[in-house]
Amino acid sequence: MTTKKSRQEIAKVIRGHGYRATPQRLAIYDALHESGSHPTAQDIHQTVLERDPSVSLATVYKTLQLFVELGLAGEMGFRDQTHYDPEMEYHVHLVCTNCGKIEDLHVDELERFMSQIEEETEFEITGRRFDMYGLCSDCKREKRDISPPSLA
After folding, report:
1. What is the pLDDT of residue 22?
2. pLDDT category, 124, cuts 50, 70, 90?
3. Which of 22, 100, 146, 147 is 20 to 30 A from 59, comparing alpha carbons?
4. From CA 41, how far away is CA 44, in angstroms rounded?
5. 47 & 95 share domain
6. Same domain, 46 and 9
7. How many domains does the chain have?
8. At residue 85, does pLDDT exceed 90?
9. Is residue 96 within 8 Å of 139, Cβ to Cβ?
């Protein structure tokens, strides 16, 4: 359930921080949200190249770093690669330890939980990341399909 801002809203945020809202930056934002997952810079670059072959991988990296700084994207390291998260609302990452797939799970109580922590401890939360590791449904099914039959 990714909340994508309009191009006008993104341009306003970018300009509001003193940067130019170039067509390349907006195309990178679109590609990040259209991925439907947690893409790497290389994934986003491949998508953007289909629309604008002049966009370099370096431009994608710099733009993604800008988006992270401006709070338009999250940055996460998994399996020795950096992935970018277009979803900035509170959510949990379900990370498959077999295939590396990352899925988002929105939990209504998560925001309340964070507020409770701040209230009870007087701790100001300035960052958060919730990751759960295990097997995705595809890998779980595949594992079940290749299990040897029981000798019972």
Report:
1. 95
2. confident
3. 100
4. 5
5. no
6. yes
7. 2
8. no
9. yes
Q: Which runs of E-coded beta strand occur in the chain?
A: 74-78, 81-85, 92-96, 102-105, 131-134
- Gap between the Cα atoms of 92 and 100, Å rounded: 15
Question: Which range marks the domain in which residue 24 is found?
Answer: 1-87
Strands 102-105, 92-96: pairing is antiparallel
For residues 28 and 11, the answer to whether their CB atoms sit within 8 Å is no
Asked whether residue 150 falls in the same domain as residue 97, the answer is yes
Residues counted in the chain: 152
Whole-prediction pTM: 0.72
One domain for residues 63 and 117: no
CATH of the domain at 148: 3.30.1490.190
